[in-house]
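Recall from the previous lesson that a structure prediction takes nothing but the amino acid sequence as input. Here we apply that procedure to DNA mismatch repair protein MutT from Roseovarius atlanticus. The sequence below is the only information supplied.
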Amino acid sequence: MSEERFEGTKLALFLGARLAVIERDHAPDIPWPGYLDLPGGGREGNESAAACVLRETREELGLVLAPGALRWRRFYAGPTRMWFFAAHCEAALADEVVFGDEGQGWCLMRPEDYVAHDKAVPHFAQRVAAYLAG
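The prediction returns the following tokens.
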């Protein structure tokens, strides 16, 4: 997959056994307002997929992850051209979260609860389920 041709990234960030989840703003002009999202977002300039997802995680949750924390990645072509990553960190890292200015708040959820939640962004829930299935 071409690293140069993608629009954004998302991260299934496991803090211990739970998944970091962000409640999207309720603004009607954004996709999936009020839904449960994952850290990540749009690419800036020519940054790599890893640099994009690490920057977005820092901006949204205040967490500075090392590139080596990204254990898994897969490219998805729709609905946008996006790299989806997974990282597993210690549960104690949740104490270091400083929530940014995008979204209504954040929480930790059991990944299976996120996948089944009626307010999870559907294509991200499917990707988490695919990751969990191996």
